[in-house]
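Escalation from tier 1.

The customer reports that the assembly of two entities below gives different structure tokens on two consecutive runs. Tier 1 could not reproduce it. I'm attaching the input and our single run for tier 2 to review.
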Amino acid sequence: MIITVASGKGGTGKTTVAVNLALSLSNESPMYLDCDVEEPNAFLFLNPTIEERREVGQLIPEIDTRLCTYCGRCAEVCAYNALAVVGKKVLVFPELCHGCGSCTLNCPTGAISERLDVLGVIEKGRAGPVQFGQGILNVGEAMAVPVIRQLKKWAIPEVRDGKIIILDASPGASCPVVESMRDADFVLLVTEPTPFGLHDLRVAVQVARDELGKVIGVIINRTGVGDDGVESYCAVEDIPVLMRIPLDRRIAEAYSNGIPLVEALPEYRTQFRTLCARIDELSVQRTFPVQEEVS
Amino acid sequence: MKQLVVLSGKGGTGKTITAAALAHLASREMSVVLVDADVDAANLGLVLNPTEIERHEFRSGQVAIIDDAACISCNRCVEVCRFDAIAVNGRYQVSALDCEGCASCFYQCPAEAITMQESLSGEWYRSDTRFGPLFHAHLFAGQENSGKLVTLVKQQGRLLGLDERRDVVIIDGPPGIGCPVISACSGADFALLVVEPTVSGIHDLERVLATTNHFGIGSLVVINKYDINLQRTAEIVAYCHAQGVEVVGRIPYDDVVTEAMVHGQPVTAFSAGPVSHALLDVWSRTKQYLLEKENGCDGADTT
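Tier 1 run:
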């Protein structure tokens, strides 16, 4: 089962929820993938030992000037303006390229080959019973999606045998978030009870439930401040609120020092185990809807 | 005219709260333009009570459409698509969310069964607020090209600012360091980085600072909720000192920040407590950089 933890708004507690969920399920040796490749943070709480690392990126065109006739076809078919033919020169702009390979396929003289343009690294390792993986986008690079896509391809096994895989997504609601949600069996949305939290939760619900058709549930973090907008929204939209974490200075302090919640306050372990059982129930209900009894 | 972008790396550290407070404080002594460059999750409007003046469609990128009647089920589109965007369930179908609009399938289809359709990916708005005009946008759920939409709202804000000879553009940036952040900081005179004294806050500050350095943009740092962990705050101060980056303020933790948000107000307009005092300090020190840089070489904007 793949559970993606996402939020819309940043800083609502995605990593806290995802890390503590993983740590509470240590008997099941879950897998944890940090898909927030722009700002990966989970390693600060899980302290994994990295065992394997590889560079990732995307394929960008390379022009063989002996074969190129400067016909301009590559520039014409490129949807991203990543190629330009100026006189007897072909310019390639790697930061605009999406690595689709259309130029290679369209080149009439076979003058285009492709080489890897490195965007970042992906890493695999262990944090005790937790199998750990993360992607790290290089500073100055714009494209997070290829790093996330390759991390998932590399780390997630084909045959999963009921293994629990937790994906920690980046904030927002655009392409990197979609990439982190697309294989999920369940999307857990973490929010806070404030107008900002509600506004961005709506956007996240639109992506996860309405666009991608995922089963979703909400966790409200830092309850006790703000207003009841998120609670009423979830009630009206019939979205289950699976957990409420109160605003608690002890939690904030433990977090600030990189100490996981379930280590600082072990009573949360049971709550996260219950959360996982609820997620399992909800996603199974969706896969195998309850049949009407035939008497 | 100067452009100030508020960034953080890590999400939820208080970018928007800070940007809104600066908008309020700056507007009392100079003319400002406001831009919300977090088009995924645009929150600045929630505390500025904007009145919409203009609304525009944002069309960007394309999506492939397969005509069932013409499709000969040769599977060529699936072979060439590097984004796994084409599914075969009895018929060949493009998943609009996964399609990157590269048109590779369009060119390769031997039956000419594929067309490319421009997609409506969002909207952008010009609004009025009591602190100045606000340019903001909404990228539709799951869409691509957020960087382009960020560039567009920023450009609109800048053009209006130049036309009306405004003093400063305050840009509320997105979290992260990737495509929308790069778009948000391009052309900025300097960046105000909002950080929390936590292990992840510090880690993300290092990455966002490396990003602003990479693009040659000067940075200032604000420590939000500094009293949650004084030791980490001291670490940030030392780190910034070593990097030659000025810490222009320390904002204490206070529930009044959330209260102000619930009331739809910048915290500085809502309360006169310690948070507002700290933000006043941030503004007065940031302003000096605005003025200082104003005297530097800036041919295009001198009057």
